Amino acid sequence: MQHSNQSVFDGIWRIFCSVVDNFGDIGICWRISRQLVAEHGLTVQLWVDDLTSFQRICPEINPERISQSVLGVEVCYWPAAQESTVNWQQLPAAAVVIEALACTIPRAYKQQMANQQPAPLWINLEYLSAEPWVEGCHGLSSPQAELAVNKYFFFPGFTQLTGGLLYEQDLAQHLASFIDSKQAQKAFWQKIAIKPADYQLTVSMFAYSHAHITELFQQWQQHPAKVLCVIPHGDLANALAAQYPEFPGLLTGDMLQLENLHIKVIPFLAQPDYDLLLAACDVNFVRGEDSIIRAHWAGKPFVWQIYRQQENAHLLKLQAFLDRYCRQMPANLASSVQQWFLAWNTDRHLTGNWQEFYSHLPEIAEYNQQWRQQLLANGDLASNLVHFAKKKFIITPNFSQQ
């Protein structure tokens, strides 16, 4: 077998991202892109079909620009509905092409990849899953019937037999320093116009709409101490504003007070600030994929609202995660956590399940520190991607200069 004189670091890494649920897909792709540039010195192009949503998590993005450089990443607009407007054949050769999170690379660009000699390394970056079959499929190749190039499956995951999870080299120290500094936390809360000292339970609520969320709010209204619930602008905040028309300032930064519950809708945070919000709160409600990963690194009790799929396929994925996450918990703690996660994801009535979950918050926080260490031992996703690519480049040439 022929070996290549080229390195995985010699060419462009081209990442394609189609924004599906506004933030999860682009959130993952943006973190990977930044990390590949900052920590591995790679040249990265990120092709995105929705720059407006992208701007919500990265204020430096200009939605009107077709191409722009942000934090060392070349961001390119990919007009998915009008792909013919891009001359894909004129793009410089890529060393690695990442088809991220179930998006589909343009047909014309696939042909360009096949014509490139040797072909680039084509990676299908899959969605996060804890299902056991993922370990057997991670890293497998998939020959393409119509193209002379293979595609490799790369699965993020929770074990050493997967690609691991996204985290930056300095993240743990950064969050630890933030948690240890009352001054840093005070400055953060001031930045979003909140006085946290006024509350005994702080909750971040990043969630899809929920049929029984008012039931949870009613419990928090009767909480023996003050509860702060921070909600970013979005569908959930809009639904609450419609539900509480007597509080017209809810979407403009006013505090909504319902007995001992205080609700604050804040502007959507850039990713670094969202990471700090998770570290600053006592409990984090997260949704989709990017925020659940960041909740792990914050180390606080969390509940995951998984992205819904047809025929309740998402519940199988949720149960697979719970089986792995709760595996080393004491039986009563595992039962409480699983019942609360399932209640939150199935629109069950929440009353008893929340009270049980709440009573275990100190134990969950302690357990999450151990769980986080287990995950860190698997290596980070970006570095694992680079190691995978380097291995493939040693085996066979995948890049040529044009």
What does this structure look like?
With 402 residues, the chain is an alpha/beta fold. It folds into two domains: 12-165 and 379-395, 3-Layer(aba) Sandwich (Rossmann fold); 171-376, Glycogen Phosphorylase B (Rossmann fold). 41% of the residues lie in helices and 18% in strands. The chain contains 15 helices and 14 strands. It has helices spanning 24-40, 51-57, 107-115, 133-137, 171-180, 182-191, 213-221, 235-243, 271-280, 290-298, 313-325, 331-346, 351-359, 361-376, 381-395, and strands at residues 12-17, 43-48, 67-70, 73-77, 94-100, 121-125, 141-143, 150-154, 201-205, 227-232, 255-258, 261-266, 283-287, 302-305. The chain has an eight-stranded mixed β-sheet with strand order 3-4-2-1-5-6-8-7, covered by helices on one side. Strands 11-12-10-9-13-14 form a six-stranded mixed β-sheet. β7 (141-143) and β8 form a beta hairpin. The radius of gyration is 22 Å and the shape is globular. The protein starts with 11 loop residues before the first strand and ends in a 7-residue tail after the last helix. The model is unreliable at 1-5 and 396-402 (pLDDT under 50).
